[in-house]
Specification:
There is one protein chain. By secondary structure, the chain is of the alpha+beta class. It has one domain (2-99): Alpha-Beta Plaits. It has two helices and four strands; from the N terminus they run βαββαβ. The protein has helices at 13-21, 77-87, and strands spanning 2-9, 36-44, 61-72, 95-99. A four-stranded antiparallel β-sheet has the order 2-3-1-4, covered by helices on one side. InterPro entries: DUF34/NIF3_sf, N-reg_PII/ATP_PRibTrfase_C.
Length: 103
């Protein structure tokens, strides 16, 4: 089992979650579409060669984003990450994947 965390702008939150949940990620027992969300602010500065969805090259941009955390079975994690990347508006979305211990 993996913990999958990604950061997404508020305007794209539901579409990206829908894409990830469609892969089967976010299931806990008899429950589906399980996640934790926390609102915050992301910061980045696009460098030369970037094609930013938000902001301009060379300028720091701050965006209202959500951190979304969910669990994902081993056989689905690559598909879930690929679905997030495809649905996400950023060319380089920020995300983490952790292997969970079974205790």
């Amino acid at each position: 089992m993996y913990k999958f965390v990604f950061f997404v702008p508020e305007d794209n939150l539901e579409a990206v979650k829908d894409a990830v949940f469609a892969t089967g990620a976010g299931r806990i027992g008899d429950y589906e579409r399980c996640c934790f969300e926390m609102k915050g602010e992301g910061q980045f500065r696009p460098t030369e060669g970037a094609q930013p969805h938000i902001g301009v090259v060379g300028s720091i941009e701050r965006v209202k984003e959500y951190r979304v955390e969910l669990v994902c079975e081993d056989n689905l994690i690559r598909t879930a990450v690929a679905a997030m990347k495809k649905a996400h508006p950023y060319e380089e979305p920020a995300y983490d994947v952790w292997l969970l211990a079974d205790l």
